[in-house]
Design brief:
- The protein has one domain (16-176).
- α2 runs parallel beside α4 and α4 runs parallel beside α6 (128-144).
- It is 58% helix and 0% strand.
- The model is unreliable at 1-14 (pLDDT under 50).
- The radius of gyration is 17 Å and the shape is globular.
- It is an all-alpha fold.
- It comes from Curtobacterium luteum.
Length: 186
């Protein structure tokens, strides 16, 4: 006889706490990354929101799409990426309308700052996956702006933080193969 396990709806949601936390903090993280003047540092709460959101790949794709959005849509409209129904964001490989370089640079700097916040031990409850995810997004921002050296450095540190990070691996591969974004100029 094969043993069976009965699971309640509650049990199923507990299986994916990182993804749930990432989805809950997504809009706050997007606002922290793209709102306010470029030189404004992240608050500790904003850093934690960015790290939490960056722990899941689906929310990272949503952050990437938000940062690259040429229209500058409001962070309150961002929703997590759904791997079953959504196509990959064209910006992931540098396709589509050219993003605002200041917006991408600001987000990249803030993502790297969130990683440094984690690395300094200011977020003892934070996870390495979120820190690697934030730095992988920062690497993508550098790549999107044509800064291969910065993108490579950030991708390497992200992979040192979490060796299996798929976005950091992709950015490192894009840099290694000298693939450049082909943004459409409108």
């Amino acid at each position: 006889m094969i043993p069976t396990t009965t699971r309640s709806e509650h049990d199923r949601t507990i299986r994916y706490p990182r993804e749930i936390a990432a989805a809950v903090t997504l809009r706050a993280a997007c606002a922290a990354l793209t709102s306010g003047p470029a030189g404004r540092p992240l608050t500790p709460a904003e850093s934690i929101a960015v790290l939490t959101t960056s722990a899941a790949l689906a929310t990272r794709f949503a952050v990437l799409e938000h940062v690259a959005d040429a229209s500058g849509r409001d962070a309150r409209s961002v929703v997590p990426f759904d791997a079953f129904t959504d196509r990959l964001p064209p910006a992931l490989i540098g396709a589509g309308p050219a993003p605002d370089p200041d917006r991408v640079r600001t987000a990249g700097d803030r993502l790297a700052a969130a990683w440094r916040f984690w690395r300094a031990g200011s977020d003892p409850e934070g996870c390495a996956q979120g820190a690697a995810g934030a730095l992988a997004l920062a690497a993508w921002c550098a790549w999107a702006l044509g800064s291969d050296a910065r993108a490579q450095t950030r991708a390497v540190y992200a992979l040192e933080t979490a060796a299996d990070d798929p976005l950091a691996s992709l950015v490192a591969r894009l840099v290694r193969t000298r693939t450049r974004p082909a943004w459409e100029r409108l």
